Amino acid sequence: MPITVVGSIAYDSVKTPFGERERMLGGAAVHFALAAAFFDEVRVVGPVGEDFSEEDMAAMQQRGIDVSDVERVAGGSTFFWRGEYGWDLNTRETLDTQLGVFEGFSPKLSQRSRESEVLFLANIQPELQLDVRAQLPSVRFAALDSMNLWIDTARDALVRAVASVDCVLLNDAELRQLTGRPNLVAAARELLAWEPADGGGRGPSVIVAKQGEYGAALVTREGFFALPAYPLETVVDPTGAGDTFAGGLVGYIAANTDGAGAPLPDELLRAAMAHATVLASFNVEEFGTERVRRLTREEIDDRLMQLRLMTQFSGP
Ligand code: AMP
Fold it and tell me: Is 23 left (phi over 0), alpha (psi -120 to 50) or beta?
């Protein structure tokens, strides 16, 4: 099933203990799309500024990503983010966020993007996520990601956005912050009880708690599942790992279900978690999108096999 994604399309300046990059291609929607494109057709929605290069647009097109709803705003600047990581890469400080063309952006989706059966609301202002959600009212599977900035500055809209999707992906700290619950499983269970204010819709049925180098946990009404992160000796830049994870998860679900008969079976969700974990592991090996841009299907399959061997056990 084709996937429409809205979220930041960005230039990122990033410093880690292993080097730095100025204004590299980034953004939640870009990282998501590059990963999800391994599995299904992806349509990206969002604005870029005059400064956005043709080469960066081509990087998405080369993966077959539909960029016809990426709007170039005359005189505008592309979303910009600057961040710096601590020595163990577990702590990150945002030094600058410039919304640029996302400020006051009002998306007009093409017929094609509105016809997608899967929707991913990648990290961006929750009001914008809600706007796009409303333009795909009968989508079969909708998922959302967000971050602390929006929990701090736009909580009410974010609560409505969360209630409007089937699946929520958040870092463990963000889940705690959003719900005010210190226990992760309790926080996830609380989100499972959130319902759209208008009484319509379904409310979330799948919660994914991302835990960085410790992996990710899946909480549904029926069950629980967790996977460690794929163990790597070289991690260079975690930027976009969460979005790449989401691309693996949502991409796999889109390609392997017709979306009918919700809730999605646990077996499908577990396989999706494995694909997500593998995609994210490649993302962190190099800066920004560098590694995923030259990733192959064979490399994904090989690492999936390794992850399977690593996480199975036998005995009574
Ligand atoms: P992640 O490391 O998965 O949290 O995602 C990092 C990406 O999110 C970077 O490529 C940034 O451009 C983008 N980003 C950072 N802050 C924001 C924000 N407030 N809203 C949307 N995207 C953001």
Answer: left
